[in-house]
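Below is how a single chain appears once it has passed through the pipeline. First comes the sequence as given, then the structure the pipeline wrote out for it. We keep one example in the README because the format questions we get most often are answered faster by looking than by reading.
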Amino acid sequence: MSKLQNEKGMTLLEVLAATIIVTIISVLLLSILINSNNTSNKQMKASMQLTDTSYVLKVITKDARKSTQLKSNKDEYTLKNDQNTEEYIYKFNREDQLLTRNTEVIASNVLDFKIDNMGNYITIEITQSGNKPFLSTIYFRGGI
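Resulting structure:
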């Protein structure tokens, strides 16, 4: 009993063991936090690219449904309505990776953009950095 009353503190070995345990737990928690943050950032970037591409496809679909003809010249596509002379000009700048609609930028980081006239339907293909190509097909009742 007298031995227990003589202990006045912790030994250096006990302090060192506690420090090592706290350090290991801290490193594990920090690595989990960093990995989850990196994963979250990647998912956010992919989600934003998907949203941007979806927006571009909606705009082009809306314009195409109003149009009666499609003219293409390399990286420039013109959707035109003969009845009310509305015209939508899509230009793809490969160097800047920008897609514009009537001089307004509607997408950035675009690697490839194509609109193909297939007779009674058109296909739209958009490829953004880090993603597979997005393809959309728009069918017309009266043809374009």
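The longest helix spans residues 12-66.

See the next section for the split statistics.
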